[in-house]
Write a structure and sequence with these properties.
With 361 residues, this protein is an alpha/beta fold. It has helices at 15-24, 39-49, 57-62, 78-87, 102-115, 129-139, 174-191, 303-314, 323-342, and strands at 4-9, 29-35, 53-54, 68-71, 91-94, 119-121, 146-154, 194-202, 207-209, 219-221, 227-234, 239-245, 256-260, 263-267, 277-281, 288-290, 346-347. The chain has nine helices and 17 strands.
């Protein structure tokens, strides 16, 4: 089978599951090279996953054998490195978010189109069996026309477990930019694009104490909103709300619910690939469990990159976890924060197509 050569840039926490799946599960890609600012990190991952080449970023973007650059660096470096890779003629897939600013993301999408390159962006969890089953239920009209949605990502932050949690509370962090992409990508995949947003935000705790190792006891000065409530007016007329918070000690709220004219649906955690899907139609007295109808219910991180590789191999441009979807999600997140600052509803500039549904089993 013909394969697409991928170079991985960044060997942080998320890289292990990507490398595991790209080297063992997705057979249309070859991890050609790996890179990290700390060479020892790259060497450790290369040895673990059998990657023969350790290269610098400069070497990667100049190597004609590399077709896709997978950017797994931290969010402040997404725009800069993606732009340089695109300018060098490389297709790019980047971890979420696409950039820290909508205008930067828009530039990346335009640059990719101008050069005839593919631009992809995480998350790809919406391509898993859980969210895709929900998509098929909606497409089949089982819950009727979608009229509303509610999404909740509520916890008390990451300083209790993450080894370096500071960036979650700095520019580009916060619960919306950290976890919002999972929820918003899932919602757009199921319902379609958003026309306008409103938002309210707060910093409930101006400082955070790290209780994880190795930085136990250090104090973080919080720079970004950590409790964010957004209203979403979808293009199809549905109205949704999303709450993301690092300020809540406990909650029993669901991850996502979708409301239709003929019933309601409980959607599994969009940060996973599987999970339980439940539907209660208008004639039911309780929610009923639905079987999953597509593949990839386990941790399939990298499926979006594999789908993009297929697009390259077969001459398609409509890969699912694409730049336009990521740009739309980025604008939604940014404008929710702007709405809070300006006390007004904001009409969005961007839009996107609903990604093509994954094939049924």
């Amino acid at each position: 089978m013909k394969k697409v050569n991928v170079a991985v840039v960044g060997c942080g926490n998320i890289s292990s599951i990507y490398l595991e799946n790209l080297t063992k599960h997705f057979h249309n890609v070859e991890v050609y090279a790996i890179s990290d600012l700390i060479e020892e990190n790259a060497r450790t991952k290369a040895e673990k996953f059998g990657i023969s080449k350790i290269m610098t970023f400069e070497e990667i973007i100049q190597d004609p054998n590399i077709q896709i650059v997978l950017n797994l660096t931290t969010p402040p470096f997404h725009y800069q490195l993606c732009k340089r890779a695109l300018e060098a003629g490389k297709n790019v897939y980047v971890e979420k978010p696409l950039s820290l600013k909508y205008e930067e993301g828009k530039e990346l999408v335009s640059l990719a189109e101008e050069k005839g390159l593919l631009l992809g962006c995480a998350p790809d969890t919406f391509l898993g069996a859980g969210i895709q089953t929900c998509r098929h239920i909606i497409d089949q009209g089982i819950i009727g026309d979608v009229i509303g949605a509610a999404a909740f990502m509520i916890c008390h932050g990451h300083e209790s477990w993450h080894p370096g949690p500071e960036f979650y509370y700095k520019k580009g962090g916060g619960p919306m930019f950290d976890m919002g992409p999972y929820y918003l990508s899932a919602l757009v995949n199921m319902i379609g694009p958003v026309d306008s947003v409103s938002g309210m935000t707060a910093i409930s705790f101006p400082t955070r104490k790290i209780t994880s190792q190795p930085k136990y006891g250090e104090i973080i000065q919080v720079e970004v909103p950590t409790h964010v409530n957004g209203l979403l007016r979808f293009s199809n007329g549905a109205i949704g709300n999303i709450i993301t918070s690092f300020d809540v000690w406990g909650s029993v709220l669901p991850r996502i619910e979708i409301y239709g004219t003929r019933g309601s649906m409980i959607v599994p955690d969009p940060n996973t690939f599987g999970g339980e899907v439940k539907v209660q139609q208008y004639f039911d007295t309780e929610f009923k469990l639905c079987p999953l109808v597509t593949e990839n219910s386990e941790n399939s991180r990298g499926i979006g990159l594999s789908d993009m590789a297929d697009a390259l191999l077969f001459g398609r441009t409509n890969h699912r976890a694409n730049g336009k979807l990521a740009l739309h999600v980025l604008e939604i997140m940014e404008k929710i924060h702007t709405s809070s600052e300006e006390h007004r509803e904001i009409r969005l500039e961007s839009t996107c197509e609903k990604p093509e549904a994954m094939p049924l089993l």
